[in-house]
Amino acid sequence: xxxxxxxxxxxxxxxxxxxxxxxxxxxxxxxxxxxxxxxxxxxxxxxxxxxxxxxxxxxxxxxxxxxxxxxxxxxxxxxxxxxxxxxxxxxxxxxxxxxxxxxxxxxxxxxxxxxxxxxxxxxxxxxxxxxxxxxxxxxxxxxxxxxxxxxxxxxxxxxxxxxxxxxxxxxxxxxxxxxxxxxxxxxxxxxxxxxxxxxxxxxxxxxxxxxxxxxxxxxxxxxxxxxxxxxxxxxxxxxxxxxxxxxxxxxxxxxxxxxxxxxxxxxxxxxxxxxxxxxxxxxxxxxxxxxxxxxxxxxxxxxxxxxxxxxxxxxxxxxxxxxxxxxxxxxxxxxxxxxxxxxxxxxxxxxxxxxxxxxxxxxxxxxxxxxxxxxxxxxxxxxxxxxxxxxxxxxxxxxxxxxxxx
Length: 406
Hints:
Helix 3 runs antiparallel to helix 6 (165-195), helix 5 crosses helix 8 and helix 10 packs across helix 12. The protein is an all-alpha fold. The protein is 75% helix and 0% strand.
């Protein structure tokens, strides 16, 4: 039983988009970047053969289906203060269309520059080929900066709804998940053009080794968590250091995957098959096993960090809701409901007995949104009782109680 107008008002409260000039400039930027991204990503649809178009369509469908477990994980972690589905979906589309396209443009340009420098230096740079430097260093740098731009935009434009580490982690994860999907389609079309056969399973086993909870999903989640931590912390130095730490971790994770992870994958495939990894001929199960081992070896630390971040954000959310709703007892929260709030623990969702399921969920959501809004106002030193959104959420809670059958 969502109130769409109230949700939109909450999301865009204090947003620069409320100013017509900023809204117009952002719309122009968005349309331009989406146009560039769509042009670069959808090239098989204009001038491509029927088989190429079929490959493109099937790869896009596969990437969506295989990403569903990662989407379910995001949905589960987003249960206390729901982000709007179209915002999370928009983050994924941005990652798949805009981020992939821009990384290809800048990555190819930088690779061409490195190749020219290598030729002028006798074929190598600091003892490494241009291909190695590009794969291990410059490509991760370009990819994380380009994806990070999406997270930065969300952080800036949705400041009233971008609450904590959890929000940053989830938005970052969705940008990365979209990037995984877009990259899968690009790589698959490249393999098809080179070998005449699209390796759907083998490439999918590598790109979605843990059903989407891998690769850019992890890298961008680290970056987003840094922005989210900057939002919730009271430490002025950490407000600046957390985002920089987030992008540093994202770049490092990407570098480790492209260096150590790739080496483990290639060595394991060679040990098991006697030849190097070839998507056209290496069995998909061998590719998956090698990719799983390579991912764990190179990324175990990133999964541990994200696990810690998720747990700490659970604790922060519970404590924030508990603190902000204390003064709402006998106003918008009954003593019995507050007792349940006090008993809330990580990785569970409190229930509101005595209401139909839809009303109970909407009521809990409205109470949580009220708590976060009060927290935002207190952080900014603004009066809580005069705020229109605080009044609107309180009215929404009362209306939900009145709508419940007696």
